[in-house]
Automatic annotation (TrEMBL), chains A, B:
Pfam (any one): Pyr_redox_dim
All copies of domain FAD/NAD(P)-binding, residue ranges: 4-313
Taxonomic source organism: Promicromonospora vindobonensis
Record's protein name: FAD-dependent oxidoreductase
PANTHER family: NAD(P)H SULFUR OXIDOREDUCTASE (COA-DEPENDENT), PYRIDINE NUCLEOTIDE-DISULFIDE OXIDOREDUCTASE DOMAIN-CONTAINING
InterPro entries: FAD-bd_OxRdtase, FAD/NAD-bd_sf, FAD/NAD-binding_dom, FAD/NAD-linked_Rdtase_dimer_sf, Pyr_nucl-diS_OxRdtase_dimer
Alphabetized SUPFAM superfamilies for the sequence: FAD/NAD(P)-binding domain, FAD/NAD-linked reductases, dimerisation (C-terminal) domain
Keyword terms: FAD, Flavoprotein, Oxidoreductase, Redox-active center
All residue ranges annotated as the Pyridine nucleotide-disulphide oxidoreductase dimerisation domain in the record: 335-438
Amino acid sequence: MTHLIAIGGSDAGISAALRARELDPTTDVSVVVADQYPNFSICGIPYYFTGEVAPWQSLAHRTTADLEATGMTLRLNTLATGIDVPGQRLTVRTPDGTSQDLAYDELIVGTGAIPSYAGITGLDDLTPADGVHVIHSMGDTFALDQDLTQRQPASAIIVGAGYVGLEMAEAFTARGMRVTQLQRGPEVLSTLDPELGALVHDELTTHGVDVITNTTVSGIQKTPAGLTVTGVQHGEPFVQSADLVLVVVGVRPNTALLENAGASLGAGGAVVVDEHMHTGLPHVWAAGDGIITHHRLLGPTYLPLGTTAHKQGRIAGENALGGDRKFAGSVGTQVVKVFDLVAARTGLRDHEATAAGYTPSTVTAAADDHKRYYPGAHPIHFRITGDTRDGRLLGAQLVGKRGTEVAKRVDTFATALHTGLTIDQISDLDLSYTPPLGSPWDAVQVAAQTWQTTQRLTPATA
Amino acid sequence: MTHLIAIGGSDAGISAALRARELDPTTDVSVVVADQYPNFSICGIPYYFTGEVAPWQSLAHRTTADLEATGMTLRLNTLATGIDVPGQRLTVRTPDGTSQDLAYDELIVGTGAIPSYAGITGLDDLTPADGVHVIHSMGDTFALDQDLTQRQPASAIIVGAGYVGLEMAEAFTARGMRVTQLQRGPEVLSTLDPELGALVHDELTTHGVDVITNTTVSGIQKTPAGLTVTGVQHGEPFVQSADLVLVVVGVRPNTALLENAGASLGAGGAVVVDEHMHTGLPHVWAAGDGIITHHRLLGPTYLPLGTTAHKQGRIAGENALGGDRKFAGSVGTQVVKVFDLVAARTGLRDHEATAAGYTPSTVTAAADDHKRYYPGAHPIHFRITGDTRDGRLLGAQLVGKRGTEVAKRVDTFATALHTGLTIDQISDLDLSYTPPLGSPWDAVQVAAQTWQTTQRLTPATA
């Protein structure tokens, strides 16, 4: 019987444990979870704050009972503190504060990521009790919930306009709060080209969010005005106050445990693993937001995503039992709903492709989600990136109204990227059509044809 | 300057003409159109009858002015009657009834299909004036519209429960008519497995449609009761009457023109073309519902679909100008909305795969369209077919409520089929996820994993 320990109660650790139990029910599987909330959907937290998800318990992908029913042992409120690699022992701090060593045959580390502070002063001292929040765990969720309930803040500054920042802007707005959203770069949702980010910006503004771009926050302090955020906007000092501040400026890999055990760090300061999810340390595997991601177009990179963590965890669980499955690689597919808009991307943007050695060209396109004569048609806005040398699809970005099936249209591009199709070959795909839901040439094909036409008009002399 | 003539004002002919004008604006392009309604969306006709599309003119993909603005010449109300292949001349009957010969350098035939009568007696004599209808052209549309308006029929029998039959059941129901839908086979929408067709059946019943399966119609006659449909149901005589009868039992290729010119007929009695859309007759190309379809899993077959006609027309237009583009092949992707349900398929069903020499296994699966904790989640029901020898994906069928993005989820399977992925590789795809629109393992991956699990539990000894 193999003794397998997975560290981490989020996507990677639980996926690994589930896979091991699925493949070989004789495996003894323990999952070491730092808090008491295993298998919660961190991506769902914003919808708890909009009021759409209640109670908070329903955010669990599976209940503790569900997990235990698979035969795994959950060690909750237990912190992994050290790995004895040669001795194959994991040291943990148990719920009562004592130290304990656990023997393992195979260890899978899914310690994830932790919120980045982006060098903002004040964040080390100010806490949720002061009205300053991050949102990355159920603990953060409870702290924010308590603050919202007890103080009833009327205004919030959200530092950051990425996925979580935008979702939380919607959540605070839904609760009747005045929201100011600060973004360092020239446009919100900087994972998209600004042409498309501007559509998201408009959606925020339409719903009353005060969006301020080109603003770098350097500090947060308590003042008579509440919480005051200071920084620089276009080279000038920036000062604004609100009742509450939420900092969502990204994450960084939580690598201490593996680093101390001798693992190597790579892209983004994340732990290096091979495509089998092996760390290079004997019997030690890793998965999720703490490790590098193999990207089909970029090679090793750092791109923490829940979908990837699920896949990597599943593979680590399989390989820890002697399997030989490779992580096939991410293509960076992401989607976010912002009020009534959906924004998605997959693959590379123009500058990313250039940096990676491709010779990209990117065009803007638009096409209706379904036949215009049928009620409710709306345009989907695209940016399509392809390689001018061989016509290979490199990336696609889509923004459309909710209901335009943008989230699953990006999947067609993601599948095409995975399999290495050219943009021209997208016209060959046999995609579905009925007038209420599509067009004989689907919107994704119209966008692809726009790229093709542009290339023909612009000989590749540049 | 090349003189190109395209025959047919529907998808294939117009796509060919548009492509030729796009690629070489010096090409002289004429389109011979039997009626005066070029480039109308035949797939949209049911939505004219629901009342969702008005006026009927909006069913045009492009107006006559739009088409002429591309530089093509439209010869409306002009019937192609003969091809002189060696002389490269097309004989037409002009609007004033005279015969005229038109010289061409290249000819593209897109004469499409005509409604099948399935051997039902009475259909040759009874006309729209009697309340008996087919629905395949704008002429049919006007005739049905006039009948509905003038006679205000209270009841209809729809013979057939395929795509158009189901859409017309919805349309008649929306107009307050009592609808009886007769289906020869054991379940409606026989392009799906009965397990999924039953969901469509329930949707029809819920909306008041009287669905009668296992009923073969043999005749229609005028009686004091209105129009009486007779046939056989489970070996017993079947008789039912209504104010109106709509016969939608499929189509057959309209091949007379090419057949008389010496073209070969193949699968389904359709004209044989190669993958370049060439008929084998010098300078004569063909595309659309009148020809065989190259299917990536089946080889040559007959599968008339608008999406395919667009692709084939575009390729014929390109190759007629000296291009070298191959039709990459259909995978039979289809989708239909029936009231609030969407049903889609791509690839092969189990018995089709067996007949084609594969060794299929098909499983049923279900998965929510998005995280259940977020409001509005609904299950999508799947049938997944794969080859037990190599794990290759052979087909997928999906049924889900409108809004579950079934139409674009089937496209992920269609793209996977096009590129020859195994079902296992579908788990490797980097598909998009946000809780309101998906799950970390998308529903299509959950379905794929169900197939994988079933294979592991059932060793391929059968």
